[in-house]
Amino acid sequence: MIKDDPLSFKVFPYPPNHTNGRKNNGGFDLVAYPFKIDDIHEIASVPWKKQIIVHINRKEGIFKTYGCDFEITPEGYANGYIEFSFRDNFLSGVIENYELLFSRFQEFLIRTHPDPNVILDSQNLQKAQIFLQNEGSVIWKIHYDYIAQNQDAASQLVQLFFCKLEEIANRELISPKTASEVSSS
Fold it and tell me: Superkingdom, according to UniProt (predicted)?
């Protein structure tokens, strides 16, 4: 995992535009304001990506998103990213929680997709960085890049990634935490 990418925004909400003139929505909390999803120009014409962003930011979800992008390359590949973190500030403030998620995800890939190219690609697509939210809490966020042969493959890849991360987090980070909180009360 690459840590603390110096080229990425460090404070949320993001500034409304890039210095190179490229439009930026400025970032908003889709958990609190789900209707704002329609303001995200990067996914307006990509229904599957919008569906995934809605799913991640759903009321009972464990992650939240900060940014995303999507494009079809001149070669026809589906390329994009999603930035996300745990919603819980305790979980999002500990890099080892993300490292656990990714190591378990790697184990899953090795078991189900023994092709070493799949594993190598997934290892190179995760960047973690220190990040300051608007309410002043300092957390880690993840910048997940992906590239796939086409939109269908990208949709399957991104859905698999987030479904497995949620499953792993619920099993290994959230359920044990909840169980220990209940037993100590």
Answer: Bacteria
- pTM attached to this predicted model: 0.76
Coil/strand/helix, residue 83: strand
Strand, coil or helix: 60: coil
In angstroms, rounded to a whole number, what is the distance separating the alpha carbons of residues 97 and 146?
A: 21
To the nearest 10 degrees (0 to 180), the angle between helices 151-169 and 95-112 is 120
Query: What does the pLDDT look like over 15-73, one tens digit per residue?
Result: 566 566 666 665 678 999 899 898 888 888 889 999 999 999 999 999 999 888 889 99
Question: Strands 78-86 and 2-3, how do they pair?
Answer: unpaired
Question: How many Å apart are CA 182 and CA 171, to the nearest integer?
Answer: 16
- What pLDDT shows up at residue 163? 92
User: Tokens 């990634």 map to which residue?
Assistant: 161
Q: Kindly report whether the peptide bond that precedes residue 34 is cis, defined as omega within 30 degrees of 0.
A: no
Residue 143: name the closest of 98, 175, 112, 96 by CA: 98
Domain residue spans in the chain? 2-183
